[in-house]
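User: tokens in, sequence out, please.
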């Protein structure tokens, strides 16, 4: 009986050893298969650089090695920063039509819409230096170009008003430097800083100037987003019209009263306070004192309850892939 028990234990131990050996072998084999599948199916490519390129009809000297390498860096960064680049393209579908129309009306090359992308990713963001809005105006510059900025209203957050102001500023920079490329650089570092470096280095081409690291990357970031957004598929982005953020349908009301309670204004117009602020991001307080009796135009949703439904319907009617911005 003891012999049978010993034999049974030995057989059991042997079976367990064999099972562990097989499991270990299978696990190792699975890793090999997994690794092989990874190599076969997951590819990371370095995008092809263009042979010729321009910004605002000004040629980029692609024959200079550091120009190519600087552009390569920004294309790689934005191609493989998937979440940010996809979100920018979704927002561009909503905002680019208005931006393009204002740029065209003011005689500004449409490539400057990509400057707006680099400035803010098409959001009303606030920088650590207190620049604000899609075009990232500092308070002093915003006021210089007639944007109302106070405790209750900040028109840097109004896309149309801020784009009009940006056009005036860009015209000023172009007149000063005689180049749209230099105007773009000056938008980032300021006209005085750029003028100082031009005088010190004796160069009048951005691509021959040695500037601070942020400004040195700035125009290349604009160029990279231009390339990616004009031909998303070439950089691996497969977005459909229905994936985009459509332009929001709205109606308008005018407000000229003093001491307006925005909570009550929202209720009186059958919408929420959140929706009111979403559609009018330049309203930065919960009230509108309006001491000077100005007339403000506010946007409101066409149908508060069916807004999303209307947007979805518009998107579903255009299901093809996005070809470019």
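Assistant: Sequence out:
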């Amino acid at each position: 009986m003891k012999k049978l028990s010993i034999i049974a234990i030995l057989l059991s131990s042997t079976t367990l050893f064999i099972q562990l050996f097989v499991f270990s072998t299978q696990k190792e084999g699975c890793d090999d298969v997994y690794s092989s599948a990874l190599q076969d199916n997951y590819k990371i490519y370095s995008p092809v650089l263009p042979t010729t390129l321009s910004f605002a009809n000004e040629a980029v000297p692609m024959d200079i090695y550091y120009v190519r390498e600087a552009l390569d860096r920004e294309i790689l960064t934005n191609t493989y920063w998937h979440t940010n680049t996809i979100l920018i393209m979704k927002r561009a579908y909503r905002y680019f039509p208005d931006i393009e129309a204002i740029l065209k009306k003011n005689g500004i090359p449409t490539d400057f819409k990509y400057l707006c992308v680099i400035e803010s990713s098409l959001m009303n963001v606030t920088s650590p230096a207190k620049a604000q809005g899609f075009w990232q105006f500092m308070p002093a510059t915003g006021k210089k170009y007639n944007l109302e900025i106070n405790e209750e209203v900040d028109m840097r957050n109004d896309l149309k008003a801020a784009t009009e102001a940006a056009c005036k500023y860009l015209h000023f920079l172009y007149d000063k430097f005689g180049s749209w490329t230099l105007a773009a650089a000056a938008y980032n570092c300021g006209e005085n800083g750029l003028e100082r470096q031009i005088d010190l280095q004796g160069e009048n081409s951005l691509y021959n100037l040695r500037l601070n690291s942020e400004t040195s990357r700035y125009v290349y970031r604009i160029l990279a987003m231009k390339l990616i957004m004009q031909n998303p598929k070439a950089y691996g982005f497969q977005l459909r019209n229905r994936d985009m953020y459509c332009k929001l349908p709205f109606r308008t009301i005018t407000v000229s009263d003093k001491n307006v309670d925005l909570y009550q204004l929202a209720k009186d117009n059958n919408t929420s306070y959140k929706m009111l602020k979403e559609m009018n991001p330049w309203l930065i307080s919960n009230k509108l004192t309006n001491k000077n009796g100005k007339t403000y135009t506010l946007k409101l949703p066409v149908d508060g309850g069916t807004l999303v439904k209307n947007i979805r319907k518009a998107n579903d009617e255009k299901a093809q892939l996005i070809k470019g911005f």
